[in-house]
Specification:
- By secondary structure, this protein is α/β, with parallel strands linked by helices.
- It is built from eight helices and six strands.
- Helix 2 links the parallel strand 1 (36-43) and strand 2 (71-78).
Length: 248
């Protein structure tokens, strides 16, 4: 009788543990919503060198590896049309076998789910990114603004950790403001219509720039200084500004 009672207690305990496993809803996100939000904006308006792409892939894999279980990651490709982004991935980290309960879970099933729905799709994004012709515009600010307004600012995401990564040459080029025409001075930008047009609420958002290098472009230090000023003037928190290897 004692053995039967202990076995029954063990079964109840395991069922309770299994019941405590978070249910996954749409895009493998927890049914009660994601635990964090990470957005990645990839500038696909101009091609980059293979060296730069390889460096970017390494950086991207590190970013993906830091997304916690239940954290949402969304990847967008910037196009030459202002505010028109292409979403290439949206889903939560469902957790791998290392984060699963060994008593109530199937490690192989969890590993396969992570690889098929999360790992493989994300690993294919950078290698398949644009290597084609140069675009007529590079509306980086409009792209960031669209992500923040339509993604980060949803009421059900209030209070969650938010990070934004931007991979680009960071050379803003639109009819409203162009670094090619006006130079990279931030003071010149503040006197243009672009200052109010692209004003973006970055409060509570950590931002990191992964910058491509272009031959003949303005000073890399001046470009970095411009974007640091833009992020801080919009109340964002700068995680870093890093120039990637390679040039094209």
């Amino acid at each position: 009788m004692l053995f039967i009672g202990a076995a029954a207690s063990s079964m109840v305990y395991l069922k309770l543990r299994a019941g405590n496993e978070a249910e996954l809803g749409e895009n493998l996100c927890p049914a009660d919503g994601p635990k964090s939000v990470t957005a990645f904006l990839l500038d696909a308006t101009d091609p980059v060198s293979e060296v730069t792409k390889a460096d970017l892939q390494n950086q991207f894999q590190k970013i993906v590896g830091q997304v916690p279980k239940g954290g949402l990651i969304e990847v967008f490709a910037l196009t030459e049309k202002e505010g028109a982004l292409t979403r290439t991935f949206s889903g939560c980290n469902p957790g791998d076998e290392a984060s699963a309960d060994p008593w109530t879970s199937n490690p192989k099933k969890i590993r396969d789910r992570w690889k098929t729905a999360f790992g493989d799709p994300l690993n294919s994004i950078i290698p398949n990114s644009n290597t084609g012709s140069t675009s007529s515009q590079s509306p980086i600010m409009a792209g960031i603004q669209r992500i923040v307004i339509e993604g980060f600012s949803k009421p059900d995401l209030d209070g969650l950790p938010k990070q934004l990564y931007v991979a680009s040459d960071m050379l803003e080029h639109t009819p409203t403001y162009s670094m090619y025409r006006s130079g990279v001075g931030y003071e010149t930008f503040t006197k243009s219509a672009a200052r109010d047009l692209y004003r973006t609420p970055l409060a509570g958002i950590e931002v990191k720039i992964l910058a491509f290098q272009r031959p003949g472009a303005p000073s890399a230090d001046d470009i970095a200084e411009f974007w640091v000023s833009w992020i801080r003037s919009n109340e964002g928190e700068l995680l870093g500004y890093e120039r990637l290897a390679g040039m094209k």
